[in-house]
Amino acid sequence: MVRTQAADVPLQLGGAWRARHRSWRRLRHHPLFWIGAVILVFLVLFCFAVPLVWHPSTDIDVAAMSLPPSLRFPLGTDALGRNNLWTMMIGGHLPIVSGFAAAVAATALGTATGLGAALYRRLEAPLLRLADAILGIPQIVPVLIAEAILGVHAVLLIGVVTLTLWPATTRLVWARALVLRELPYVDAARAGGASGPRILLRHVLPNSADTVIASFASQFGNAVLFIAIAALPGIGAGLGFPADWATMVATGFNMSNWSWWLFIPPGACLALLIISVFLICEALRQALDPYVEGGGAA
Amino acid sequence: MTAYVGRRLGQALLTLFAVSVVLFLLMKLFPGDPGWILQGRGATQATAAEIDAMLGLNLPWPVQYLKWLQQLVAGGFSGVLGTLPPTLLMVALGGGLGLLLAVLLASVQARRRGRLVDDVLTIASLVVYALPCFFVALLLWEIFGLNLGWVPLVPAGMPPGAQTFGGWLLAMIIPTVAIAFTVISSWSMHLRAAFEEAMHADFVRTARAKGLPERLVLRRHVLRSGLLPLLAIIGLTLPALLTNVIVLQIWFSSWSIGQLLIGALQERANGILMDGVLVVGVVVVLVNLVVDVLAAFSDPRVRFQ
After folding, report:
1. Hey, are the CB atoms on B131 and A267 less than 8 Å from each other?
2. Using an 8 Å Cβ cutoff, are B136 and B184 in contact?
């Protein structure tokens, strides 16, 4: 990524539509976007589409216990002889769905509070102290407490993880908006009679887009991680069968009888999920940044 | 400087107060009436109410809150402080190794930017970023503990006098590496962005113009500009770092804050749980205070905001 002086970028006339069109074209030509999108689409199809048409037996099969990968069982079988490929598909449901839901909610909440704190001085101190207080408690504690109260439930996990994650976005967006609110065009908008919400939505928010997107990527990684931890047996409440990828990692770790096909694939899929979202966000951030060269900018 | 530290200290105390209030309210949502649980079988409504009254659970919430704080200080944090040394050491070892590798990574990438090495390291750090901490720890344990036998398979806590310090340190290698893995990427990415920006700054152009070798330009001028963003991101990633430490401790360590918290949670020991989390909160707030004071110390602009 090479940053150039603003003057090096040819002046573009034609308004917001053309800028949006240009960003979309830059995104389409960005290799990172395609790598990320292919991985993500593959994971989503693998976890949600394939189980619709293919459903092997999940009965306990004593004859096929702990088999390594073969043509019949591409990812082997677990200790009770169940097809690990199918478990892997179902195991992706919790991380994918709740990861996205929690990350979207936390980023939205954090962006709103961050912008509010920067533009309304009366909100600034209380919001930031609340954010600091929540950031002072390791995120896993509220998740575990909520689990102890209400049991494991995807919606509950999403809600609690959202509530623990939003302050990180608040801090980043607030810091970015602090810089933006001092810029001449915000003064100009205010002098022109624009209302607070209008300045927020039309001037500060679009220019904070790179911060919000970068924050979303890290929120997604954290959301997947914390939801994974919340489901780990021995820490959270184990989910039983079929489990999620994190539980599969923990149960696949076997002291006496190392079955790598039970352990490596779920861990790798968790990593691939986080990588794919990170890559898409990075490509999007670069496509929206007018100072980044290339990608068909001119 | 004194004025800034004073202001920041006041802010930290205010944050601590907010942490304790948030925690107190969280605990009030916790199920299980101690009056019933403590009696076991044969509990009646009347005796349960009696025990609640004895424990002060029928008092108004603000009074209960103050009583909790009073007992916390008087009772010496119910033994939580004793579990802090191994925890802090784990944070320090993991964070220290992560810091070392992050600085190394970012400076190599800044020097070789746009080259193959840069791309390879970017991909590698992305993979490291995405691998869950517990997965890395278990994988390393499997390879180096079970298969190769290089590290002992003892829990990484340090029950007083039960193990030698050397043996404990050996057992700490895997948790340390796993914790370092969680921070290397985000720290080095922030550092790299700061380096990138500094590369185009006027003072770097001046340094180059006066004929300073690129190596020295990087070491003397570019590297230092990364300090502030680095301090900021360390403060921001600390809670997640502690979460990972707690998870590893629950699995691998017999005597630690992670074990204490999970035990309190399973036994519904609200008091110990609250004290434990509050102590962790104090650690987070203190580290953030230190980070901010360091930032102010290293850059006068921060002081005069």
Report:
1. yes
2. no
